[in-house]
Amino acid sequence: MAKSYKTSQLLVKSCVVIVVVFSWMPLLSHCAKKPNVGLARKEDIPYIKCQVCEKLASQLYHQVQSKQAQISPKKISEYEIIEIAENVCNLKKQEADWILKIDIVEQGDKLQLVEQSSEGQCNSECKTIERACQEVLGYSDTDAAEYLYKNKPQLDSLVNFICKDLTKACSSKPPPVPKDRTPGEPFIAKSEKEAEMEKLMKSMEGMPGAPGMKMYSREDLMNQKFGGEDAEDDDDDDEPDFPSKLGKVLREKDNKKYDWKERISKGVVDAGVKLKSHADRVSNRIRQWWTSKKTGSKSSEL
């Protein structure tokens, strides 16, 4: 009798464990399917690649038009168009800033790319659009640039050429979105100052004489992970006329008889050193601005 009672107790406990495990399974499944913020969701690309292609074609058209207006009456070169085409899908470049304004919205069994009025934080949706853009254009960027340069097409013709003839991105309808698709993160707009700061850093990236310049993420800014944190503010040593020093160097008559190539090389090196110095000062000012901002916010919380 006692043995039978123990057996029944064991069965009851086993059933309870099974019920608990099964009740937790949907939650565990939901956690497992939660998208990793900051990484592209490759599974979403088939649903948006045609729309991405249309938008990148539109960006190519308008950015080339804008560049032409800037340098008018000079005509835009094929190289300049290729440069735009190579950068339009690279979030590290200004030509791809359009991606930051796009929100992926689920509407029924479709995903729609909805353009926002301002740039947003770049998380998984942003990276997904970038990845889709890169997959669509791929190695066809030079072909698209050549078509733009030689044919000077209207926008509709360019979209048809890139998305139907060249890449086939819009040759068929996108498949329906699965009903159990995990929604993406909400669109979070950047502040104007944050957007301006990122544009400044992008414009300075790769500057001659300042190879150490780099983009900082929002997390880096929060943790004050800046390059050259020990740099002191040496505004007193600023030399606002540093570009003119290049001409001065070229005109100098040194005791040593440099030939013209050596003079130019020396001038370029000197100008590069000055540029790097100014870039370091800008980085230092950004660090100080951010530190004071954090200190102010902590004080207000207290």
Briefly characterize the structure:
Residues 229-241 have a biased composition (Acidic residues). Helix content is 58%, strand content 4%.
Description:
- This protein is mainly alpha-helical.
- It folds into 2 domains: 42-166, no CATH class; 192-296, no CATH class.
- It has helices at 2-33, 45-71, 78-87, 124-137, 141-151, 155-166, 192-204, 218-222, 242-251, 260-301, and strands at 102-107, 110-115.
- It has a two-stranded antiparallel ribbon with strand order 1-2.
- Helix 3 (78-87) packs antiparallel against helix 5 (141-151).
- The protein is flat and about 60 Å long.
Features:
302 residues; mainly alpha; 2 domains; flat; SaposinB_dom; disulfide bond
Report the major sheet: 2 strands, antiparallel
- Which structural class is indicated by helix and strand composition? mainly alpha
Mean pLDDT across all residues, rounded?
76
Distance between the termini: 68 Å
H/E element order: HHHEEHHHHHHH
Identify the overall geometry.
flat
Number of domains: 2
Q: Please identify the oligomeric state.
A: single chain
Beta strand %: under 5%
Tally of DSSP helical segments: 10
Strand order in the sheet with the most strands: 1-2
Total count of strands: 2
As a percent range, the share of helical residues equals 55-70%
Q: Report the uncertain regions.
A: 5-33, 228-244, 253-258
Keywords: Disulfide bond
Biased composition (Acidic residues): 229-241
Protein name: Saposin B-type domain-containing protein
Organism: Buddleja alternifolia
